[in-house]
Specification:
There is one protein chain. By secondary structure, this protein is α+β, with helices and mostly antiparallel strands. It folds into two domains: 61 residues, no CATH class; 175 residues, Beta Barrel (Thrombin, subunit H), CATH 2.40.10. It is built from three helices and 15 strands. Strand 1 and strand 2 form a beta hairpin. The radius of gyration is 44 Å and the shape is rod-shaped. The C terminus is likely disordered.
């Protein structure tokens, strides 16, 4: 029974193949007005409206499918672009930080050359914390005694004097800033007269210093630069080397100098935004050093 069905199916298949070959031969061998061509045109005319209608009916479906496809593709591209933007922003931040640090290092090198820091072993340090009080009187740096930092070593920023080392551990140090109420620095006005005095913080104003004890006939003007005096008297030597910029005279009048012998000075360094400082360590051939201090 099974063999008969197989033979019957093979016979039907062979018949269909033979008929197809005959029809194809007849179709290509006839003229355009032949019956087979006429039947073809009839089928086309009947099915064409159906095909056109189906195409129009399915167009919204195709449009929706295309919209979803475009939306998913656009979202994928947006996510990729967002990732690239975040990556580029991170790179820009790194380059910006590196550029800023290079600027600080270049400024410190320029200051070293200006003040003759060759007599010291400068140690460049990162600021790792600041006093949380309003005045920012102290900062912590990431270098300590293991790096040669010692108590009372002068500390400078990229534009001038920052303060002195007041506490040292093996790997970190604390710097008392020149705006701290305990600080006082022997200073001199960098002009031909070279009037000298003592620079102290102005009470109640963390952004200002007072150069006091000036001669009553001192001719100090706004814009004059104030630098460390760096005095030396026998075995006694000032804590700070001479010529380190401290600030610029921001307020001065002959009447105030005559009455109180003082002028107001703006610090050369932005003490609230310190990132990199330099500790002037191990002066060569140093004698005993003393700080001019009212404490």
């Amino acid at each position: 029974m099974h063999d008969k069905q197989v033979r019957r199916r093979r016979a039907v298949l062979g018949l269909l193949v033979a008929v197809s070959l005959i029809l194809l031969t007849a179709y290509f061998g006839e003229s355009a007005s032949s019956p087979l061509h006429s039947v073809q045109r009839g089928f086309v005319e009947v099915l064409s409206p159906v095909q056109d209608g189906a195409s129009k009916a399915l167009k919204p479906v195709r449009d929706i499918a295309g919209w979803f496809s475009d939306t998913f593709h656009a979202k994928s591209q947006a996510d990729q672009l967002r990732t690239e933007v975040h990556h580029l922003q991170a790179e820009v931040a790194q380059y910006q930080t590196a550029w800023e640090q290079n600027q600080h290092f270049a400024a410190l090198l320029k200051l070293d050359n200006k003040i003759g820091a060759a007599g010291f072993s400068p140690v460049t340090s990162q600021v790792i914390s600041k006093d949380p009080t309003l005045w920012y009187e102290t900062i912590e740096v990431n270098k300590g005694s293991d790096d040669g930092v010692a108590l009372n070593d002068p500390v400078v920023g990229d534009n001038g004097l920052v303060g002195k080392i007041s506490l040292v551990s093996a790997t970190a140090s604390w710097v008392t800033l020149i705006t701290d109420h305990t600080m006082a620095v022997a200073a001199i006005v960098d002009d031909p007269a070279g009037d000298s005095g003592v620079l102290e913080p102005q009470v109640g104003n963390p952004n200002a210093l007072l150069l006091q004890s000036l001669p009553r006939n001192a001719n100090v003007a706004v814009g004059d630069q104030v630098v460390t005096a760096g005095f030396k008297d026998g075995a006694l030597q000032d804590l700070y080397p001479a010529g380190i910029p401290i600030g610029t005279v921001s307020s001065a009048s002959q009447s105030s100098i005559l009455s109180s012998g003082e002028v107001q000075v703006t610090p050369a360094v932005d003490l609230r935004h310190l990132d990199v400082v330099q500790v002037l360590t191990q002066p060569h051939g140093a004698n005993a050093r003393a700080q001019v201090s009212n404490g």
